[in-house]
Structures
1.
Amino acid sequence: MVETSGVGVPGVTELNIEPVRLREFGMDLMTQLGVPQEKGEICIEAFLFGSLRGIDTHGFFALLPRMVREIRAGMIDPKADSCVIKRKTATALIDGCRGPGPVTAFQSMNEAMRRCRESGIGGVATYNCNHFGAASFYGYQAVKEDLIGLTFSNATPRVVPHGGREGVHGTNPMSFAIPAGKYPPLVVDIATSASSAGKIGQALKKGEKIPEGWALDQNGHPTIDPEKALKGLFLPMAGHKGYGLGLVVDILTGALTGSFCGKEVPALEDLTTPYGASFCMLALNPSCFAGVNMFKEKVDRLIEDCVTCPPMDGVERVYFPGELEAIEEERRTRIGVPIQEEDLDRFYQNLRDHGLDFKEDVLI
Amino acid sequence: MVETSGVGVPGVTELNIEPVRLREFGMDLMTQLGVPQEKGEICIEAFLFGSLRGIDTHGFFALLPRMVREIRAGMIDPKADSCVIKRKTATALIDGCRGPGPVTAFQSMNEAMRRCRESGIGGVATYNCNHFGAASFYGYQAVKEDLIGLTFSNATPRVVPHGGREGVHGTNPMSFAIPAGKYPPLVVDIATSASSAGKIGQALKKGEKIPEGWALDQNGHPTIDPEKALKGLFLPMAGHKGYGLGLVVDILTGALTGSFCGKEVPALEDLTTPYGASFCMLALNPSCFAGVNMFKEKVDRLIEDCVTCPPMDGVERVYFPGELEAIEEERRTRIGVPIQEEDLDRFYQNLRDHGLDFKEDVLI
C-alpha cells in the first residue's frame, strides 16, 4: 500500500511503506547475501527500529545498502557468530568475528543480560565489530526484560579533541535504555560529538547550513557549510565535557578489548579493510537493588515531572528522552516508513549494482 | 609557611597553605566534631583532593565549613558507617545512614571494587547520602588499584529539562577515572548541567557575567547575571543530550535505590531535613578483559594522540582530561593551596560561630 503524503517539497512524491513489506523485502535480500535466517531477522529489526522511530540516518534505507556493500566487499562475514574469548562471573570479552554489526551487538547484549540476571550487573566488551545501527536497539533488548541497557561503540576518528584540529576519536555514541511503568522506555541515544555525519548529510541534502560549533573544515577552521563539514572534522558536544565522554567511550570499547582505539579505528568507508570497531554493553538489574516495581514507579514519577514541567517561552511542551521517538514509532507503524520516490529509485539501483535481484512491487 | 603570591587583584593578599598544615588543622576539627579518626581522614583527603587539583568549588575551604554546618544541624551523623542492605555477586544496595558524604562514597566504591576484582565488574547504589565533594576522588580510589572507577550522584533539583522552566533534576555529576601507564590517570569529572552553582558563584565573586546558555532567572527567562542565576535555575549541557544524561544519573542513583529521585531530592541548603542524595559507583577490572598492560598501553596511546594533536588557532596546546588538574596538583602540593586573606578570615569566623576551637597559627 502506498500513500502519497502531502508534506515535503513541491514536486517530490513521498511514499509511505508498510513495515511488513520492508521486513519481507529485507529478509529476501538477507538470504541472497548469505545471512542465515535468524541473523537476518536481527539485522532487519535493527534497521526497522531506526526507521520506525524516525532515526532515518540509522534506518532501513540508510543501513541496508551499507551492509550490502560491506558484505560484498568481504568486510562483513554474513554467517559469523561472535565468540566469547574470556569470561568472568559478570563480564565477557568477545570477538565479534566480523559478523554483521547488529548480530554481534545483539549477542553481546545477551551475554551482558545473562550475567546481570544473577549477578546484578553484567558487562561485555566486544572487538572486531561492524556498524550496529542505532545504539538504543540493544538497550531495548534489555528493557524488554525489565533490565537497564547501556550501549557504547567507538568509531572512525572524525572528532577533534577540545581545542584541537585533527580527528582523535569517533562520534562514539552512548545509549541508555530504561524500563518505565506506564510510560514507554526512557531512552537516551546520543553521539558524544556535537552532531553526526548523518545529521550533517541531511542538512546538505536540504540545502541548509549547519549551526556553529558542529564542525571544522579540512584545514581545521570552523565551518557552517555541511559539504565542507563532511570533508572535515566534527567538534565534541559541550566542549571539554563531550571530549571527555568521547574518550571514555573509546576506553570502554577499544582499550578494554585491547583492539583499535581512537585514531587506530579504520575508516568505515574504506572497503578494503575490516572496520574493527568495538562495543561495550552493560546491563543492570533493578530487581537486585530496590526492586523492579519500585524502580518503575520512580522512573514514572521522573517522567511525569518532565512532561508536566511548564515550558519555556516559545516551547509547546517538554518531552522526556525517547518520547518523540515512541510517538513516531506508533505513527509510522500505522502509516508506514516515509521515503521520497527518487531516493527509493536510488536505493533500488544501488542494490541492483550489487547483483541483487528483487521485485519492486514487494515494497509498493 | 606562607607565601604571598603576586597574582590576583591588587590590594588582595593571597596566602598559600601547605597541604600538611591543612591536614593537621582539618583532623583537629574532625575530632572536635566527633568524626572518628579513620573517617575524618577520608573526609580531609576528599577535601584536599579538590583543593590540590584546583577544583576550589569542591575543596577544603568550600566543603569543610559545609560539613561543620551539617554535622551541627544533625543532617550528618559523624559516626555512621554505611550498611549493605542487599547483596548479589557483583552488586550491592547500600544505606549510607546519613554518614559524612565522603565516608559513604569511599565505602561504596570499596564495595564496588571488591566485587569487580573477582567478577570483572561491580556496581553499587547507595541512598541516604550527604554531599561527597569531588566525584573523581572515588574514581581515583579504583585507579590506584588499576581499576576503572565510575561515580554518579543525584542532587537538589535545580536543572530544567530541555525546553522547560522548572527544576526537575540536579546538576547530577558523572565521573570516569581511568588508569594510564606513563601518564597520570585520565579523569572526566563533569556536571551534566551546562555549569554548576560553584562556577556561577565564582563569576559572581569576580563581578563577571556568565555565558548565555548556563541559566534561567526565577521566572524562567535566560540570564547572564550570576546573582539571578543563583536564585534561578540551571540549563542542561548540550541541550537534549545533557538533559538525557542528567536523568540517567537520577535513575542510576535515586531510582535504583528506590530513594529520592529528581524533584524529590531535598534542598541541600535546608538544614532541617537530611539531604538524602543517592550515589552509584561502578568499577570495571581491565584484567578481566584484554589485560591491564594492554589496557594501559591503549590509554597511553589515546592520551598521546590528544596531547600531540595540532591545536586550533588561538589555542596553545591540547590537554587530555584530567591533565590540567594533575599539573595543578603537582604545583599546589609544592607551593600550597591558595586562599585570599579575607576568605581565610571568613573561614575562621564561620568555624568559631559553630563553637569550634583552634589556633590560627596552625595554618599560617
Note: The mean pLDDT of chain A is 95.
2.
Amino acid sequence: MPLVYADHVAAMPLHPKAFEAMVPYFNDFYGNPSSIHDSGEKAREAIEEARGKVARLIGSQEEEIYFTSCGTESNNLALKGIAWAHQSRGKEIIISSIEHFSIMHTASALERAGFHVVRLPVDGHGLVDPGVVEKSISPQTILVSVMQANPEVGTIEPIAEIGKITRAKNVLFHTDAVDSVGTIPVNIKELNVDLLSLSASQFYGPKGVAALFVRKGVRILPLLDGGIQERGLRAGTENVPAIVGMGVAADLSREEIPQRMSHLQGLQKKLTEGLPQRIPYLRFLGHPTQRLPGNVSVAVEYIEGEAMLLFMDMDGIRISSGSACISRSLKVSHVMLAMGVDAATAQGSLLFSFGMQNTLADVDRILETLPPVVERLRNMSPVYRKAMAKKT
Amino acid sequence: MPLVYADHVAAMPLHPKAFEAMVPYFNDFYGNPSSIHDSGEKAREAIEEARGKVARLIGSQEEEIYFTSCGTESNNLALKGIAWAHQSRGKEIIISSIEHFSIMHTASALERAGFHVVRLPVDGHGLVDPGVVEKSISPQTILVSVMQANPEVGTIEPIAEIGKITRAKNVLFHTDAVDSVGTIPVNIKELNVDLLSLSASQFYGPKGVAALFVRKGVRILPLLDGGIQERGLRAGTENVPAIVGMGVAADLSREEIPQRMSHLQGLQKKLTEGLPQRIPYLRFLGHPTQRLPGNVSVAVEYIEGEAMLLFMDMDGIRISSGSACISRSLKVSHVMLAMGVDAATAQGSLLFSFGMQNTLADVDRILETLPPVVERLRNMSPVYRKAMAKKT
C-alpha cells in the first residue's frame, strides 16, 4: 500500500530542482563567501542571487532579506532584536495567544528580562480582532507580532488590517509567515509589515535555512554576534548550499502559487466534505473560509488524537495532531485552548496538511482508513460509551 | 593550470562520504524529527546516531552534544547561555585577546549588558599563559573561554593546563575548538573543559551545522527559545541532512586523524622550509612547534597581504590573509596586534592552510608562484624601496 504523507505542516519534501541547484555548492563551490579570492566570490554571488529570489517572493528589496538558520531563529531575532534595539522607547510587546512556540516562548523570555507582554485573545475560529489590537497598543508598545496563518487550525489572520493600525500608531509590526509564504500570495507592502519571518522548508526548500525580512530603516540588534555576515545582523559562515536551495524554492513558489492553491483547495474540499459523512461527532477547527489551502483541522470527539495518529501511521498514513513541536511536548495545544476548545476535545484533534505530491486518491485512502480507526478507538473508550448511553 | 586551494581555514570541501549519507535525508526521509509518526522516527534516529558519532569524536557522552547551526552560534550559546544562567554567582568572564570574532564580539555584547570582561594577553607566539589565567580569576569569575587553536597563526593553546586551573578554582571553562576538532586529537576529559564548540564544516562536514558540548550538570540557558528540540537548549526544526553529514564527517575524522596529521605536517614542513629560501624579509607567525598541522602563517614585510592574495588568485592559488571574516572587514587583525606584530607587518600576512586534497605538487606551485609576485609588488612599493636604500 503506498504511503500517504499529509503532514506538510511538520515537514515538506525538498523540491528536486532545489536539490539539484544545491549539489554543486556541496561538491564544487565550497568556498567561504567571506573569502576575497575567486572561490569566495562564487559563493557570495550565489547568496546574493538567492537573496534576490527570496525578496521577489514577498515583494521586498534584496537588502531587506537576512538569512538565518530556521524559522525559530527568524522569530527569535525579530522579537529579541527589536526589543533590545527599542527598549529605550518602551518595553511592551503585543503578541497573539496562538503564536508558534518560537514566538510564545521568546516573548516569555523577554518577560523574564523585564518586558511587558500583552497576549491578544482570539475568537472561536482563531481570529485576532484588529480592533482589539488597536485598543491594546499603549505608548509603551514597541512591537506587535501576529502570525499570518496558524498551521494547527489553518486560520489566516487579518494581517493587512492590523498593519494599517500599527503603521498609523507608529508601532513596529512583525508577522510570522513561516506557514503561509509559498502557499498563498504574500506581499510585504500589501500586508503593511515591518518584519516578516519565512522558512525555506515550508515551501519545498531545504531545512537549515530561513530568512527575516526587515524593512529598510528599522533598527534591530543581532542575536548572534561575530563576523559581519548579513550586514552585521547575523554572524556565522553562510550555509551556502541551503541558501541556494531556498532561492530556487522561492522562485518556484512564486511561479506556482496559483496552481498550488487550486490543487490544495481541491484536496481540502474533498476531505472536508467526506469526513463528516463518515465520522459522527466531528468538529472542524479554525476558520471555515479564511484558511490555508490544503489544511484540514478537526477534532474527533471522545478520542485521543495521538492514538489515532499511531493507528493511521500503522496503515501508512502520516498526519499530525497539533503542530509537530506540540506533538512531542505532549501538552494540550495552547492554540486550541485560546480558541475556547475544551481540553478533552483538543486531545482529539487531527491535522491533515496536504502538499503538491498528494492526490485525490490520497484523500480517498484517508476517508477509507480513518472511520474504522475512530470506531475501534471509540469502542475502547469508556467516556464514549458513557456519552452514548446518555444519548439513547 | 590546476587550481591550488590552500584556504581550509575559511572553508573545507565536503567529504564525498558525508554528502552521500546526506542525500537520502534530502530526498526521501524528509520527516520532522518531532513528528510522532514513522517519518519523524526515521529522522529522529538519524539525529541520535549522528550525536553518538560526534560524541565519540571528542570523548563525551551523547547527551552532552547539542546541535546548532554554525560555530558562531555554538560560541554565542556558550558565552551568553552561561552568562545568563550564572549571573547571580558573578558577572565576570575571562577570554583571550586572540579569540574568533564570535567570542570577541559576544563578550563585548555581554559587556554592554553589564558583565565585566577580562581579555588575557598572549605572548609573541600567540600563547596564553596558564599562570595569568590563574591570577585573573576572581570570586566574580563565572567562565573562562580560550580557543584551542588560533586558525590565523596556527598556535595551539595549553587548554589542558588551563582546564586544571579552572577546575581547581571551580570556574566553568569553554574552548572554541572549531579549528582543531578533526585536525588534531581532541578529548574533553583530557582537556578538562566544561563546554567546547566544534563545527562540521571545519572537518569536511557540511556547512550549516555545528555543535556545543556541555558537560552534564552544567546549567546553561538557551539562545533560541521555542520548541523542545535538543532537550530545550536549541529550539528550531533540526537540519537533519546536515546533522547526518556531520556525524559521518565526525566518524571519518576520528579514524583518519593520524593520517591527516602526518599528511598535513608533510605539506607544512615543505612550505615552511621552502619559503624563506625564496623570499627575503619573511617572518613566520605563531608558535614554531605547538601549531595546527597544515597551517603556515607568515608576514611578508613591505607588502599588503591583500594585493598578494589577488595576484595569487589570478594564478589559480587560493590562500588568505588572516581569517576569512577578517579579510572582508578590512581591519588589521586583532590577533596579530595582540601578539605584538606591528600594523604594517600584519598587513603583509599570508595564511596557507592545507587540507587532505593538497599534494606536495601544490606546495611546489606555491613556492614557484609567490616569489615573483612578492618581488613585483615590492618593486612597486615606495616603503620597500626606501627601506632597501637605507640598507645599502
Note: Chain B touches chain A through 70 residues (CB under 8 Å).
